[in-house]
Write a structure and sequence with these properties.
By secondary structure, the chain is an alpha+beta fold. A hairpin with a 4-residue loop joins strand 1 and strand 2 (about 45-55). About 20% of the residues lie in helices and about 35% in strands. The chain has helices at about 5-10, 20-35; strands at about 35-40, 45-55, 60-65, 70-75, 80-85. A five-stranded antiparallel beta sheet has the order 4-3-2-1-5. The chain has two helices and five strands; from the N terminus they run H-H-E-E-E-E-E.
Length: about 100
């Protein structure tokens, strides 16, 4: 079986090998809504900020820390949890009166 066939059947986009799935959907929602998140790393370090972007290797976070503002890069291999500070709306609100 060709690697490209495997990627196409398992949700990867052509050319980049970037898989779409629940984690990418979740990160896209957090980025578009500009939700503040806390990210726990394998080393025990915690990052807090807004997700500016992400790809298959890592996440860029705009820090909300007043003492150390700026952009941070976190490798996806080193991230253990991503916790939003407010609930995430997965579905759009529907008008039940129709």
């Amino acid at each position: 079986m060709d690697n490209r066939d495997y990627e196409q059947r398992n949700g990867a986009t052509q050319g980049r090998g970037f898989r779409t799935g629940p984690s990418n959907y979740y990160l896209t929602l957090l980025r578009k809504n500009r939700d503040v998140v806390s990210i726990s790393m394998v080393s025990g370090q915690k990052l807090r900020g807004v997700i500016a972007g992400f790809d298959e290797t890592g996440i860029i976070i705009n820090s909300t820390n007043e003492l150390d503002p700026g952009e941070l890069y976190a490798s996806r291999l080193q991230i253990t949890t991503i916790i939003p500070e407010s609930p995430v709306a997965y579905l759009k609100e529907t008008d039940s009166r129709k």
